[in-house]
């Protein structure tokens, strides 16, 4: 699928002007109650099937009421693992969030353009804004997405595919983990340094997301890891803008080849600050020259690769718009992202339930975000307040109708680009071909930062790990056994694993080999004669590590970030 949203700017502007003049006199309709579903799309003028996506979007926008337009720019989360049947606790959560009991009722009441699936894992740095989880396994996710689409199909905008998004970044931020092929982290891909391997792996990921009914991935992370950020960390492809750019482009091409839209994030670059935008407003103090040279290239690469969406970040970028979070900055989103980087696709906010966005009420925050240049409002903390705030602003003119129509037209254009692709069967998940793509990328990532290249461990091995990593320790032990290495509970050559959030206290002084399964900075304090990095703790990464330890594979990766006192590799250049 070839997708180039940058190329439609001139035609799009003319189209928007035409739509605004044609819709401005339409009377406003009352918002329907949850028990009164919106009229079916058959009551509106049909959209031209088979036409250019922008033309189909234009035709559909011309039929929509104000409330339908407002709903199309909202993409909240919901409670419950089913669209129509939820637990009492999930129903209570939905009522507090949106005044309805189920996700399907939320879609109907607010004419929603999409929904984000949420969840978290133990090492997830984004867990603070994940109020619930509604992803358990692929079969459940597919049933949920089918139910959401059934509800959305009855809306006036139902001719356009409903957006179902999630943060499937791989590594520490992976929403759906059971029954799917788990890729190594982006930092591991950066260490491998082979965009073709990245593209193949992310194409497998796209096929699996599509099979579960997910058509928008809030990935890849385009942030250059210029600081030792724990909130970005191994979610980034590395510290070098050129390397990260090639990797971002590969991931975008892979996802979108399978009909899943890619949303590169977090513009203008969360890797330039170590602070966490979930809890505070991080300051990006670098000069504009540094932004141009370091932060922007991976976003530019993602745009050139055809990325359908870009996610804006809650960052105070002093060199461009001091004091204003980028999510709400017209200078950054409209002047820089669209005007200078040439992006014409959908701009999506980061979670509006994060602290920097909550300085305003949900309604005011939504209006400010749209006026700045966002097209989709993600994870508002109150759906009804955001919806009502947008309608009120449209009525009093503080949200120009031209801006709303422009946003909806972009959203619907993206939807029609994703249309007419049947979802693959669930049997494609975790297939041998997909596992091979993940394994190839994981194998190319393994890096030796101290010790002789290809030096296997001698004698029996005892695998240890920092607290809470027993499953990963067992996975490596199994992989070593399969590779012909004897593993003993104690007394063997110690191979010690450390991961996300670990520091010097988690190292073992008696370990012969220490392995970093997340960012490798912790290795600077390790005393082991052999230091390795996998940047990831997936089964594929542990299998690749075992092959190196057994002397059956050469560690060809290069650390994509600088580790104090250590080279990028001791295994060649």
UniProtKB/TrEMBL annotation:
<keyword id="KW-0326">Glycosidase</keyword>
<protein>
    <recommendedName>
        <fullName>beta-N-acetylhexosaminidase</fullName>
        <ecNumber>3.2.1.52</ecNumber>
    </recommendedName>
</protein>
<dbReference type="InterPro" id="IPR001764">
    <property type="entry name" value="Glyco_hydro_3_N"/>
</dbReference>
<feature type="region of interest" description="Disordered">
    <location>
        <begin position="23"/>
        <end position="52"/>
    </location>
</feature>
<feature type="domain" description="Glycoside hydrolase family 3 N-terminal">
    <location>
        <begin position="104"/>
        <end position="413"/>
    </location>
</feature>
<feature type="compositionally biased region" description="Low complexity">
    <location>
        <begin position="41"/>
        <end position="52"/>
    </location>
</feature>
<comment type="similarity">
    <text>Belongs to the glycosyl hydrolase 3 family.</text>
</comment>
<dbReference type="InterPro" id="IPR017853">
    <property type="entry name" value="GH"/>
</dbReference>
<keyword id="KW-0378">Hydrolase</keyword>
<dbReference type="InterPro" id="IPR019800">
    <property type="entry name" value="Glyco_hydro_3_AS"/>
</dbReference>
<dbReference type="InterPro" id="IPR050226">
    <property type="entry name" value="NagZ_Beta-hexosaminidase"/>
</dbReference>
<dbReference type="InterPro" id="IPR036962">
    <property type="entry name" value="Glyco_hydro_3_N_sf"/>
</dbReference>
<dbReference type="Pfam" id="PF00933">
    <property type="entry name" value="Glyco_hydro_3"/>
</dbReference>
<dbReference type="InterPro" id="IPR036881">
    <property type="entry name" value="Glyco_hydro_3_C_sf"/>
</dbReference>
<dbReference type="GO" id="GO:0009254">
    <property type="term" value="P:peptidoglycan turnover"/>
</dbReference>
<dbReference type="GO" id="GO:0004563">
    <property type="term" value="F:beta-N-acetylhexosaminidase activity"/>
</dbReference>
<dbReference type="GO" id="GO:0005975">
    <property type="term" value="P:carbohydrate metabolic process"/>
</dbReference>
């Amino acid at each position: 699928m070839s997708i180039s949203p940058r190329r439609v700017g001139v035609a799009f502007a003319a189209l928007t002007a035409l739509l605004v003049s044609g819709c401005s006199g339409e009377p406003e309709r009352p918002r329907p109650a949850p028990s009164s579903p919106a009229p079916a799309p058959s009551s509106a003028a049909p959209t031209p099937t088979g036409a250019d996506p922008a033309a189909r979007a234009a035709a559909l926008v011309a039929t929509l009421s104000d409330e339908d337009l407002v709903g199309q720019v909202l993409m909240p989360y919901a409670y419950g693992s089913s669209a129509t049947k939820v637990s009492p606790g999930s129903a209570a959560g939905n009522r507090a969030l949106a005044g309805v009991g189920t996700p399907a009722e939320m879609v109907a009441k607010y004419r929603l353009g999409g929904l984000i699936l949420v969840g978290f894992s133990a090492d997830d740095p984004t867990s603070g804004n994940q109020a619930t989880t509604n992803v358990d396994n692929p079969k459940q996710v597919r049933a949920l997405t089918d139910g959401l689409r059934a509800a959305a199909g009855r809306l006036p905008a139902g001719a356009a595919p409903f957006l179902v998004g999630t943060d499937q970044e791989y590594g520490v931020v992976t929403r759906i983990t059971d029954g799917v092929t788990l890729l190594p982290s982006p930092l591991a891909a950066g260490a491998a340094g082979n965009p073709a391997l990245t593209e193949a792996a992310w194409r497998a990921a796209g096929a699996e997301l599509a099979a579960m009914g997910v058509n928008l991935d809030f990935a890849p992370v385009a942030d250059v890891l210029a600081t030792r950020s724990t909130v970005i960390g191994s979610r980034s492809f590395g510290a070098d803008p050129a390397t990260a750019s090639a990797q971002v482009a590969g991931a975008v091409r892979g996802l979108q080849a399978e009909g899943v839209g890619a949303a590169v994030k977090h513009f203008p670059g969360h890797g330039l600050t170590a602070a966490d935008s979930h809890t505070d407003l991080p300051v990006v103090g670098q000069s504009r020259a540094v932004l141009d040279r370091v932060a922007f290239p991976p976003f530019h690469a993602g745009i050139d690769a055809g990325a359908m969406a870009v996610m804006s970040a809650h960052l105070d970028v002093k060199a461009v718009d001091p004091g204003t979070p980028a999510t709400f900055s017209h200078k950054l989103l409209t002047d820089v992202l669209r005007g200078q980087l040439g992006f014409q696709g959908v701009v999506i906010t980061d979670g509006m339930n994060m602290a920097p966005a909550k300085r305003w009420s949900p309604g005011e925050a939504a209006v400010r975000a749209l006026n700045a240049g966002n097209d989709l409002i993600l994870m508002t903390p109150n759906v009804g307040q955001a919806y009502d705030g947008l309608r009120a602003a449209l009525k009093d003119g503080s949200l120009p109708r031209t801006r709303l129509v422009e946003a909806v037209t972009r959203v619907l254009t993206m939807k029609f680009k994703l249309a007419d692709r049947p979802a693959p069967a669930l049997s494609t998940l975790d297939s041998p071909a997909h596992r091979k793509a993940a394994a190839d990328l994981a194998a190319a990532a393994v890096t030796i930062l101290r010790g002789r290249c290809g030096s296997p461990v001698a004698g029996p091995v005892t695998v240890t790990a920092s607290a809470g990593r027993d499953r990963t320790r067992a996975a490596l032990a199994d992989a070593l056994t399969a590779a012909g290495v004897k593993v003993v509970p104690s007394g063997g050559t110690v191979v010690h694993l450390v991961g996300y959030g670990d520091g010097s206290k988690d190292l073992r002084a008696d370990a012969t080999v220490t392995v970093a399964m997340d960012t490798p900075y912790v290795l600077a304090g390790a005393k082991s004669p052999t230091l390795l990095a996998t940047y990831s703790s997936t089964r594929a990464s542990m299998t690749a590590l075992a092959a190196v330890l057994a002397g059956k594979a050469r560690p060809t990766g290069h650390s994509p970030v600088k580790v104090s006192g250590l080279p990028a590799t001791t295994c060649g250049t």
